[in-house]
Write a structure and sequence with these properties.
This protein has 22 helices and 7 strands. It is mostly helical.
């Protein structure tokens, strides 16, 4: 099916396929096989017998043909004469099709569990790390706190692990090398911290028992050729004396593999290679209620965010009463922090953002940004006396987009935040704190301030990754200042924080404060 796309690059006669038309009376329509493959979103392959019961109600989706994007120009990849034998057009179409289908399934929450298969080689799909991270955020939660208490539907499957079993020359540790290579291929921090303070531990090891390896196993003869019957004696001695202690003693294994003894035993199981254990762990996850369980928390967060957004427009009384209520909630927060001065720094840090998040918000803005389309005037415009259509409104710049994402991000952090319990406050107090920060940012026009630091013309002249990096640096400084110094550094109330008293002159006495704590300011 995937290789048929190569027909898109071929000239001359190509294989044809009869397709039943949906138009009444049209009958069969003959199309090139490559075109049919390009237009096909799904191929359904039904198993006559399900090897495990959970497959009777579970669809296993595969995305064949995923490849990394080429880092070359249109001329180098599509039009160079020497590149034509590698079917460049079909490669571009295949990459785009796989990406679109994966994004559609993920957006519709039809990818409820993932088998992330990674062999011993280098990462072929360089964007795979971002795809996986985006899927985790949609299905499990954006932060370790959001993922806590949810069943883990991500299964990291290390394939071709028979390569890891062989003897190696020199001081190389094959177990450490394999785990380090697989773990470092994915960024986003989810492997190091899946839930607060806990790493991701749902690793599985697989090998293909159909591939004969007589250095490890003995095999049956006659009608049972290829069936593993036992261990090679020399390998069995190496397994017990060296490989098993090496595996169980490896720090990455102890950190990321739950029940490593059972996982190694499953990997070495004859005629199995770890597939049965993986299926046993998949069965309770692949249940019909999984999709609902993943959607329900997201729907609840949307409802909560909507309630909070509409709450700002609800007037419960006169202006003085509302101001008193807002000030009262913030007094509760400041009083709690005064009682715990050591918590002030961590509290502020909890509501600040990291550069990668601002970078991702800017990239989303650039991907979704559309230009206003000018309406073309024709002689038919006033033929029937119709009113002219309003032209599409131009989208705002990157400043409002980044600030809007930041406001939503702060609101989400205030929801179910551990700081409410930590400070003994109601969640409403934290939401009030966030609301005041966001209102203050709007009051001082922080979006325009950010755009003033980085003009759109300069950003559009840079490569996308370079522009995103620059926005992430200045954007992080801008929004984090709004948290650390409400109203911004330029506000009179904050100006004193950045003014240093003049240093005493020679032989002058230092004017030290009576309270030593004031020296820390």
């Amino acid at each position: 099916h995937v290789d048929a796309l190569k027909d898109l690059d071929r000239t001359g006669t190509v294989p044809q396929l009869g397709v039943l038309s949906g138009t009444p009376g049209a009958g069969l329509v003959h199309l090139p096989v490559g075109v049919v493959s390009a237009l096909t979103a799904e191929l359904f392959v039904t198993l006559e017998e399900a090897p495990w019961p959970f497959l009777t109600h579970t669809d296993l989706l595969d995305f064949p043909g995923a490849r990394s994007r080429q880092r070359s120009t249109v001329w180098e990849f599509l039009r160079k004469p020497e590149e034509q034998d590698s079917f460049p057009r079909s490669q571009c179409f295949r990459r785009g099709k796989v990406a679109v289908l994966f994004d559609n399934y993920a957006a519709d929450l039809d990818l409820n569990a993932m088998l992330l298969c990674k062999d011993h080689g280098n990462q072929e799909v360089t964007e795979l790390s971002d795809l996986v991270l985006d899927w985790i955020r949609r299905t499990h939660g954006e932060t370790p706190e959001r993922r806590q208490g949810k069943p883990v539907a991500m299964f990291f499957c290390m394939t071709k692990c028979d390569i890891m079993l062989g003897r190696t020359k020199g001081a190389d540790d094959p177990v450490q090398k394999r785990f380090s290579n697989n773990i470092n291929a994915f960024r986003g921090g989810w492997i190091e911290e899946w839930t607060p303070g806990q790493p991701f531990r749902n690793f599985f090891m697989l090998r293909n028992p159909v591939v004969e390896n007589r250095g490890f196993f003995t095999y049956a003869t006659g009608d049972r050729v290829g069936e593993e019957t036992g261990y090679n004696p020399e390998f069995e001695e190496y397994l017990d004396s060296t490989l098993r202690p090496m595996f169980l003693g490896e720090a990455l294994v102890r950190k990321h593999v739950e029940d490593p003894e059972a996982k190694l035993k499953a990997l070495m199981k004859r005629n199995d290679g770890g597939s049965t254990l993986l299926a046993e762990k998949l069965a309770p996850i692949c249940n019909p209620d999984l999709k609902y369980d993943q959607i329900a928390p997201r729907a609840e967060r949307v409802a909560t965010a909507l309630l909070q957004a509409l709450g700002d427009f609800y007037e419960s009384g006169d202006i003085e009463t509302r101001v008193a209520e807002r000030v009262g909630r913030l007094r509760l927060l400041t009083a709690a922090l005064k009682r715990r001065p050591a918590e002030i720094g961590p509290f502020i840090a909890a509501f600040q953002v990291e550069e990668p998040l601002i970078e991702a918000a800017y990239l989303d803005h650039r991907r979704n940004a559309g230009q206003a389309v000018e309406t073309e005037t024709t002689v038919f415009d006033d033929l029937f006396g119709d009113e002219p259509e309003e032209p599409a409104a131009a989208r705002g710049g990157f400043g409002p987009a980044v600030l809007a994402w930041w406001a939503n991000h702060l609101t989400e952090r205030a929801t179910a935040s551990p700081w409410a319990l930590r400070l003994g406050l109601e969640e409403e107090v934290l939401r009030a704190f966030v609301t005041e920060i966001v209102i203050g940012a709007d009051r001082i026009e922080a979006a325009r301030m950010l755009e003033g630091r980085l003009d759109e013309y300069t950003l559009n002249s840079l490569r996308l990754d370079a522009a995103a990096r620059r926005v992430s640096i200045f954007g992080t400084l801008t929004v984090n200042d709004l948290v650390s110094y409400p109203g911004g550094r330029g506000q009179p109330a904050n100006a004193g924080r950045f003014n240093r008293a003049p240093a005493p002159g020679p032989k002058e006495t230092c004017d030290l404060p009576e309270n030593p704590r004031d020296m820390e300011r």
